[in-house]
Amino acid sequence: MKQYNTVFSMSKTIELLGISHDVYSLSILINCFCHLHLVDFGFSVFGKMLKFGLEPTTVTFTTLINGLCMESKIDKAVEFFDDMVARGYQPNVRTFNVIVNGLCKFGKTNVAIGLLKGMADRGCEPNVVTYNSIIDALCKDVLVGEALELFSQMSNKGISPDVITYTSLIHGVCKLGQKNQALALMNEMVEQNILPDVYTFNVLIDALCKDGMVSEAQNTFNVMIQRGVEPDVVTYNSLIDGLCISDQFKEALALLKEMVGRNISPNVFTFSILIDTLCKKGLVSNAQNIIKIMIQRGVEPSVVTYNSLMDGYCLCRQIDKARKVFDLMVTNEIADIFSYNILINGYCKCKMIDDAKQIFDEMSHKGLVPNAITYHTLIKAMFQAGRPQTAKELFKDMCSHGQQPNIVTFSIMIDGLCRQGNLDEALTLLKAMEKSQLKPNFVIYSSLINGMCKVGKINDAKELFSSLFEIGLQPDVYVYNAIMKGLCQQGLMDEAYNVNNSCYNIIIQGFLKHGDLPKASELINEMVDKGFSADAATTELVVHLSRNNDLILRLLKVRNEGSAN
Questions:
Q1: Nearest to 134 by CA among 157, 158, 111
Q2: Residue 17: how many CB atoms within 10 A of its CB?
Q3: Nearest to residue 405, comparing CAs of 393, 416, 395?
């Protein structure tokens, strides 16, 4: 009944009446202290027990081990477990289950597996609870293969799995994106006459929704209702979120109505999902109305709710309203790094760079550390506003504050410097990037080729373009466009013609690889009309993919005959 204080009062009464405690009453007292997270008091009672010459039982030791685990003192729990064995006490399956569960919760799953393996040697056979703790931990660590091996081991030992076993496995395979295996496990549960509970269904429904399989999630929801399992707010939140992501907002609202009809109160997550969807659709006034309803129902908007609303105002370029929401969050001391990033981005999009910089400067006063997104947004905006010096200062500030520049950081910096005509600085950054083991992407190569052409270094641009093939990279359309633009600016039309021909082939190959024959046909027709020709790679793809559709092959044939004439 969890009336621990009453137990303590009765214990004092016993002592006042001159009745001696025995091992059982003191073990009960220890258990009370442990449940109140006062394990040290429990050890005091344990000391009293030894002082009175009473022999502790396995239950006494197990209770104290559980108390240590409850207070996150897992190392002391293991130490006390070893002490118990050293004193000659035999741990029972409950003792092992407590220590195994504690080890798993604190990420020491391998130690727990070692204990599991040694149980039989100590004359104690594991049960379903022992296996469940380890299987659940392995699945949370996405070590599903090992979890399935233990699952098979259970069957071999004649230990029947329960709903917790299957739910953990379903959760694990869902994390790996193996939805079919999750559904198979659900079917196996039913065949074993193990009824999935609301948590089992929730795990599967949420995974299906996150994977865009909303109709399958709705089917699972219907099965859940048919089996008499009552959905909860988590079930509805997953489905509403899935419907919103798949642009089925009306259906999401219908589900909200059904949810309320079942006397299930929407929580802050439910409202936040709907508000976020409305804001992304630009329906910020509707989102504001839902916030009002939310507050009327006694649900306090969270930082996520306000961030969504602020982002919605920024998307609609209503920056003043976004600022009001932000100021309210700051006053309520709930603004987080995302709040600052949203407003900084909003100001940058509205070209209010000084306001964005002011918000950035305020972050440090509030004890918030800017992240990579904060710096990327501001650096890019500074370059676009023609303030390269400030952009470079921000980059230095980012590095000095322990933020490691990534491929996006270098892409923004190199592109910005090249657009400003600072090619030498851009190349210096490229070398620094390569030293940090980061490989340049095509965005960087496009920026550099554009930068070289801009300052008249067309030969360097051609050399860089050629080097891409030498290192085994196939330039994308942006790289081709960059080199073509530079060649045309320099009046090198023949070379630009050859590159343009290659560009057509690259795009056509892309369509062919994705099986989009109509678009490929259309582009080949355009290429032929403009006097360009297919290369060997394009022709090979056409032959492979157009066995049942000779339209593309016919177009190429016409072109080749025309070339021959």
A1: 111
A2: 7
A3: 395
Q: Mark 505-537 as b/e (b = at least 16 C-beta within 10 Å).
A: bbbbbebbeeeebeebbebbeebbeeebbbeee
**Assigned token pair, 273:** 């999902």
Which pLDDT does position 545 carry in this prediction? 60
Q: Which of 275, 277, 271, 278 lies closest to 256 in space, CA to CA? A: 271
3-state secondary structure of 372: helix
241-265 pLDDT per residue, tens: 999 999 999 999 999 999 999 999 9
User: Is residue 555 pLDDT above 70, yes or no?
Assistant: no
Helix, strand, coil percent values for the chain (each to nearest 5)? 75, 0, 25
Distances (CA, A) of 329 to 244, 305, 343, 347, 391: 26, 11, 12, 17, 28
Report how far residue 112's alpha carbon sits from residue 540's, in angstroms, rounded to the nearest whole number: 56
Range in 177-186, 309-318, 536-545 with the lowest mean pLDDT: 536-545
Phi/psi at 531 (5° precision): 85, 15
Question: pLDDT tens-digit profile of 108-164?
Answer: 999 999 999 888 888 899 999 999 999 999 998 888 899 999 999 998 888 999 999
Residues 6 or more apart whose CB falls under 8 angstroms from that of 501 comprise 532, 533, 535
196 pLDDT exceeds 60? yes
Q: Which residue is listed with tokens 């869902």?
A: 174
CA distance 89 to 63: 14
Q: Of 342, 343, 359, 356, nearest to 384 (Cα)?
A: 356
Q: What is the pLDDT of residues 6-30, one digit of tens each?
A: 999 998 998 899 888 899 999 999 9
Residue 384 amino acid letter: Q
3-class secondary-structure state, position 101: helix
The three-point CA angle 306-253-244 to 5° equals 65
Vertex 483 angle, CA 480 and 484, to 5°: 80
What is the CA angle 547-552-557, rounded to 5? 100
Mean pLDDT of the chain: 87
Alpha carbons 161 and 200: distance in angstroms, whole number? 14
> Rounded to two decimals, what is the model's pTM?
0.71
- Find, among 296, 307, 313, the residue nearest to 329 by Cα: 307
CA distances from 293 to 232, 252, 297, 298, 299 (A): 21, 17, 6, 9, 9
Q: Which residue has 């230095």 as its token pair?
A: 396
Collect all residues with Cβ–Cβ distance below 8 Å to 322 and sequence separation of at least 6.
Answer: 310, 311, 313, 314, 342, 343, 346
What token pair was written down for 27?
A: 């073990």
Q: Which two tokens stand for residue 114?
A: 């070692």
